[in-house]
């Protein structure tokens, strides 16, 4: 989902409609992935 949003240009509205989710839920899921990616990047920088 995150890649669909960041790489293919799909809107959250389009993804929500396709997946049967609310735009708010899609936003939450994308934000969760972005937080985890940021944390992984920070951990890698600490090594």
Which shape, going by the Cα principal axes?
A: elongated
Oligomer: single chain
Determine Rg (CA atoms, Å).
Answer: 13 Å
Main beta sheet strand tally, sense and closure: none
Distance linking N and C termini = 29 Å
Strand content: under 5%
**How much helix, percentage-wise, in residues?**
over 70%
Ranges with pLDDT <50 over ≥5 residues? none
Number of domains: 1
Count of helical stretches: 3
Q: Which structural class best describes the helix and strand composition?
A: mainly alpha
* Secondary-structure element string: HHH
Report the count of strand segments. 0
Report on the structure:
This protein has 47 residues and is mainly alpha-helical. The protein has one domain (2-46). Helix content is 81%, strand content 0%. It has helices spanning 2-7, 12-19, 23-46. InterPro entries: RNA_pol_sigma_r3/r4-like. It comes from Pelomonas nitida. This is RNA polymerase sigma-70 region 4 domain-containing protein.
């Amino acid at each position: 989902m995150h890649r669909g949003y960041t790489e293919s240009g799909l809107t959250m509205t389009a993804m929500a409609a396709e997946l049967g989710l609310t735009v708010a839920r899609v936003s939450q899921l994308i934000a969760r992935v972005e937080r985890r990616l940021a944390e992984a990047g920070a951990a890698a920088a600490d090594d």
